[in-house]
TrEMBL record:
It catalyses: 3-phosphoshikimate + phosphoenolpyruvate = 5-O-(1-carboxyvinyl)-3-phosphoshikimate + phosphate. This is 3-phosphoshikimate 1-carboxyvinyltransferase. SUPFAM superfamilies: EPT/RTPC-like. The gene is aroA1. It is found in: Cytoplasm. It comes from Arthrobacter mangrovi. InterPro entries: Enolpyruvate_Tfrase_dom, Enolpyruvate_Tfrase_sf, EPSP_synthase, EPSP_synthase_CS, RNA3'P_cycl/enolpyr_Trfase_a/b.
Length: 441
């Protein structure tokens, strides 16, 4: 067993930060385009992609299924571009085992691709990944006529028996635990012989922005998708056109840096912010003003400035932005409520339980509701903030540590899931505060 990492002293920054932060590529876009490149009708290019644990796991998974992924020099600030030669229908690697790590995009998006290949593919991941909901993927593949051996667990590990082709057609799933169940099937649907008519039945699909992203990305590579009827998606069979794309910066991962402007009463600018995007992180533009920030967008740069205090707010459907928002609410001047995020109980960890435990460990007053959190103001104190192998818990601890002296994060390295550069970029931003020297420990 690897030794536990040393706790990380979160920089305490009592003065305003004033910095420009360049953000690495989007996880959700990188991993969608990698999947589509593996299915495409020729070689594709991803420019300025994300390089992190989740993207590496996706690359390794696609290589296991027979795609060729090469790193080629590019202009991105955070690593090479990627050239992908699709999975060849004639190649059928044997003994396929896919390590999904803790990546939802890998554990949900790759099984339908394995179904299109020949022979068995085993899916497994981190111990925490075995807790994540997978039942709708397993049920969908069975409804599509495939044999999936999950040992009765309804979770990983499981084996998908590929038969070289998937007929497709109309299937009904319950995607209330994760939007990724929908995205996964849509991404592969054009490669099914009859295409796909996917119907969702059950409580609402969460994180619908991510499904809209999938639909937009598919249309961009020539796949016909009809999403005009709620809870129905129809994907026509046909080729996925090879492509050459620039990956946008990850706007969800921009969140903690923007939050630093509020937590310190400073200003943070993010260049390369897309004018128009399907990323859920674009919601920072509407969320942060509710928390008291001034937000402006000029020439592709988003600027966020904080004032004297953080305002309490009621925020709905914040999806993967919720841990960052919760950290700000723990520093706010009144009670805040986060709703529509019950499915976060099935994320990297049970994020609602984890946020309540860690905010309260520092003296805060947070409570779970059926579908979210209530966070009331209370002075916080020094202590250890546990990350539960969850990158967004680790960054939530870093945000609180800006305003509360003596916070440590137990495993800041877990940010490598989607942003290995986090500790370096955070230190750089913190060093822009005039009082940084006084605050650094
Ligand atoms: O499709 C995607 O890229 C994602 C969808 C969302 O999953 P859920 O619907 O499970 O929240 C999101 O939280 C996750 O970080 C990324
Ligand atoms: C929920 C998340 O990740 P995953 O893609 O593993 O579901 C996340 O990044 O917040």
């Amino acid at each position: 067993m690897p030794a536990a990492p040393a706790p990380w002293d979160a920089p305490f920054v009592p003065g305003p930060v004033d910095g420009v932060v360049q953000i690495p590529g989007s996880k959700s876009l990188t991993n969608r385009y990698l999947v589509l490149a593996a299915l495409a009708d020729g070689p594709s290019m991803l420019r300025a992609p994300l390089h992190s644990r989740d993207s590496r796991l996706m690359i390794d998974a696609l290589r296991t299924l027979g795609a060729v992924v090469e790193e080629v020099p590019g202009n991105g600030a955070f690593g090479p571009d990627l050239r992908v030669t699709p999975i060849s229908r004639s190649s059928s690697p044997a003994g396929k085992r896919i390590d999904c790590g803790l990546a939802g995009t890998v554990m949900r998006f790759v099984p339908p691709l394995a179904a299109l290949g020949d022979g068995p593919t085993v899916f497994d991941g981190d111990p925490a990944a075995r807790q994540r909901p997978m039942g709708s993927t397993i049920a969908a593949l069975r409804e599509l006529g495939l044999v999936v051996d999950d040992g009765g667990r309804n979770a990983m590990p499981f084996t998908v028996e590929g038969r070289g082709a998937v007929r497709g057609g109309h299937i009904v799933i319950d995607a209330s635990a994760s939007s990724q169940f929908v995205s996964a099937l849509l991404l592969a649907g054009a490669a099914f012989t009859d295409g796909l008519h996917l119907e969702h039945s059950g409580p609402p699909v969460p994180s619908l922005d991510h499904v809209r992203m999938t639909v937009r990305v598919l249309r961009g590579v020539g796949v016909e998708v009809d999403d005009s009827v709620p809870n129905h998606w129809i994907v026509q069979p046909g080729p996925v056109r090879a492509f050459d794309v620039d990956i946008e910066p990850d706007l969800s991962n921009a969140g903690p840096f923007l939050a630093a402007a509020l937590a310190t009463g400073g200003t943070v600018r993010i260049p390369g912010w897309p004018a128009e995007t399907t990323q859920v992180g674009d919601q920072w533009r509407s969320i942060l003003p509710k928390l008291g920030a001034e937000v402006s967008y000029v020439d592709g740069t988003l600027s966020v400035s904080g004032g004297g205090s953080i305002k309490a707010a009621d925020l709905a459907d914040t999806s993967e932005l919720a841990p960052t928002a919760a950290a700000l609410c723990a520093l706010a001047d009144g009670p805040s409520r986060l709703s529509g995020i019950g499915h976060l109980r099935g994320h990297e960890t049970d994020r609602l339980a984890a946020l309540v435990a860690e905010i309260n460990r520092l003296g805060g007053d947070a409570e779970e509701t059926a579908d979210g959190l209530v966070i009331r103001p209370r002075p916080l104190h020094a202590g250890l903030f546990r990350s539960y192998e969850d990158h967004r818990m680790a960054t939530a601890g870093a945000i609180i540590g800006l305003a509360v002296e003596g916070v440590q994060v137990d495993d800041i390295g877990t940010t490598s899931k989607t942003m290995p550069e986090f500790p370096r970029l955070w230190q750089q931003l913190c060093a822009t505060a005039p009082s940084a020297a006084a605050g650094a420990r």
